[in-house]
Design brief:
656 residues, alpha+beta, 6-stranded antiparallel sheet
Length: 656
């Protein structure tokens, strides 16, 4: 099976072009200049950017070989020998091209093994291991399949972390073993910033350091059942991803890594939280950063065994963070800024509907757990970037498109060696018109253009518009369409109108307004997918009155709109207006019902939305993939989507 790098469509292995988008499967676009490059090339021949699928090959001696006697190695029958090195490939199938010399047998005999960079010359080809993991995730194969395939405990540890969508450990791409040697292909992370480098920067705050300590304790809880806590006892193993989230380069299973950083003699003893405290001490020593008194006391208590459990450490870190917030001037300054932004209006986060809850799973996913726990020590954040993309399609059954959307984004950034100032604002509008072949298109366009003009004159200050300003904007759009209806003497079903969902962003403040059944969703790593708006339709109205959902939506008019923009005067509409804050990387999704019908987004957000949270994900491709998804499962109506990706970063100020 070949996965298209453009649209992620699954193609038969013998195809040269994607059946869905027509892209050439043997080539990809350079991430920097857009030049077509072959899959088996590491760097772009035009700009020199690394665009190939570079992976880390972890090659180790399999200590558990005797336990695997008689196991059929169906994943791979390749031997790791020096004949492969002559051909410059790790495997005889010539898929993994060596970018570094193959290690000697003596080097492989090292308990930790050795890792080298390789280039995946067939990045679109699904590996047997990936197929097993995917089938297991979709309950198409039993969990015991991993054991039956003879996958070693080290590979199983990666699979266990990956199956829980845990971003801190590298994804496993391929694995095989032969003649006592195991090979694991991992996501390449060595080009990321190391934790030690970040720790040494003068702009790194004490709160940021506390947060990384806290992330390590979450790591500890998740790795302990896998006997992999020694992965946390090597400074060179810590990196920061593009979102400054703490990540590991690899896992160490069962034994302490041979390193001079730890002078203990018992290499096979169970790691303790005192070992973790020793690493923290070493982090301060190597970075030559001074410990403030409270963290000094914490580390001393750890060394003396006065702290008993990882939960105790987390409690102490949360207390330290709270005291630091109360006592540092940087938070006082931040509070002043927030008060000025809020002005005299009280902005509260409205209740939203969480969609990702699994009724059959009472436990939180690891990814959610980390972000929920980290909320206890939240540091000041600022918006660091704002990306967007929009697309509309008539659908498979309509010949005319009555949807319309508008996007206006402004970003200003001033960056100096010692400071950075960024200001971002965005206006995003989506409308789904109604009222006949031409009327719906007119109404949706009128609403979008009216609101764009309105906010150009009523959103002049560098703060989020007030509730009253947003309300008057919606009323103005309604009046514009209503006047056309009156002037044309339209009546009944001939009166044109439109739904509306409006998103306003000013730095990390958000305003939302909507009328009708077009929706706004919010996606974060901590909460998953949330529906922010509630449809204005008869079924939802009945539910709000206490009627059971099954009964409410059994009505023949359940999906009839209770309000829309334009058909009636302003006294007949009550737009829902909410205010939110952006406290972590967030993807906002504005959609018409052509995409939200039949719970298409709810069912497919993990595959079609979650990957778009990362900075290098192409939103233009992502939004088109959403349209294709809607046409695949719906297609009965016009389809429109607007994606807005808000990236945040920690506020950095020099500490005295």
């Amino acid at each position: 099976m070949l996965i298209c790098h453009e649209c992620q469509f699954e193609n038969p292995s013998n195809h040269k072009f994607c059946q869905n988008c027509g892209s050439l499967l043997s080539q990809r676009l350079c991430c920097e200049c857009g030049t077509n490059i072959a899959n088996n090339v590491e760097k772009c021949h035009e700009c020199g950017a690394v665009c190939g699928a570079v992976r880390i090959a972890l090659i180790t001696k399999n200590d558990l070989q005797q336990d695997l006697v008689g196991v059929s190695l169906e994943l791979r029958t390749t031997k790791v020998d020096h004949s492969s090195m002559v051909c410059h490939y790790l495997d005889s199938q010539k898929r993994y091209q060596l970018l570094e010399p193959l290690p000697t047998l003596d080097e492989i005999s090292n308990p930790e093994g050795i890792h080298i960079r390789v280039l995946d010359c067939q990045p679109n080809q699904i590996t047997p291991l990936q197929a097993i993991i995917t089938n297991q995730a979709q309950n198409l194969s039993p969990s015991s399949m991993i054991d039956r395939e003879g996958i070693t405990p080290l590979a199983q540890a990666y699979i266990a972390m990956q199956s829980q969508s845990y971003r801190g450990t590298p994804k496993i791409h391929d694995a095989w073993q032969q003649d006592g040697i195991q090979v694991i292909l991992l996501q390449y992370r060595s080009h990321w910033q190391s934790l030690l480098t970040f720790w040494q920067e003068d702009s790194t705050t004490s709160l940021q350091r506390l947060e990384y300590f806290y992330q390590m304790t979450i790591f500890w809880e998740k790795l302990a059942p896998l006997n992999a806590c020694y992965s946390l006892l090597e400074l060179s193993n810590f990196f920061l991803d593009e979102d400054k989230f703490l990540s590991l380069q690899r896992l160490y299973i069962g034994r302490k890594k041979s390193t001079k950083e730890f002078n203990r003699q018992e290499l096979n003893k169970t790691p303790t939280i005192q070992d973790l405290g020793e690493l923290w001490q070493n982090l301060f020593r190597k970075s030559q950063q001074t410990k403030f008194s409270s963290i000094f006391d914490l580390l001393a208590d750890l060394e003396q065994g006065k702290i008993g459990t990882i939960r105790d450490i987390q409690s102490r870190l949360a207390d330290l963070s709270q005291k630091l917030r109360e006592n540092t001037s940087e938070f006082a300054e931040q509070n002043i800024i927030e008060e000025n932004l809020i002005h005299s209006e009280s902005i509260t986060t409205e209740t939203v509907t969480v969609l990702q809850q699994d009724k059959n799973n009472d436990t939180r996913t690891i990814a959610n757990a980390i972000y929920e726990d980290l909320a206890t020590i939240t540091t000041p954040i600022e918006l660091s970037n704002l990306d967007d993309a929009g697309y509309t399609n008539a659908g498979k059954q309509r010949t005319h498109n009555e949807d319309c959307f508008g996007i206006e984004t402004q970003i200003s950034k001033v960056e100096l060696p010692t400071s950075r100032t960024i200001a971002a604002r965005g206006l995003y509008i989506l409308c789904d018109g109604m009222g006949g072949h031409s009327s719906g298109e007119v109404a949706s366009n009128l609403a979008v253009n009216t609101l764009k003009d309105y906010f150009q004159f009523h959103w002049t200050e560098k703060k989020i518009p007030s509730r009253e300003v947003i309300y008057q904007g919606v009323i103005t759009a309604n009046q514009t369409i209503y006047d056309v209806n009156q002037n044309d003497a339209r009546c009944g079903v001939d009166r044109m109108g439109t739904t509306l969902v409006l998103l306003i962003i000013q730095d990390n403040k958000v305003g939302v307004a909507h009328v009708g059944d077009s929706r706004l969703y919010r996606l974060t790593r901590r909460q998953g997918l949330e529906q922010i708006t509630v449809d204005h339709e008869v079924g939802q109205r009945e539910i709000s009155r206490g009627v059971e959902p099954d009964i409410a939506y059994a009505r023949p008019d359940a999906y009839q709109l209770t309000q829309a923009i334009g058909p009636r005067d302003s006294t007949s509409i009550t737009p829902d207006i909410k205010f939110l804050e952006i406290n972590e990387d967030t993807l906002f999704i504005l959609v018409s019902d052509g995409l939200s019908d039949n719970d298409v987004l709810v069912k497919h957000w993990e595959t079609h939305l979650f990957p778009l949270l990362t900075s290098n994900a192409n939103l233009d491709i992502g939004v088109k993939n959403l349209i294709d998804l809607a046409n695949q499962y719906n297609g009965h109506d016009n389809i429109t989507a607007v994606l807005v990706r808000a990236k945040v970063s920690l506020v950095r100020r020099n500490q005295s």
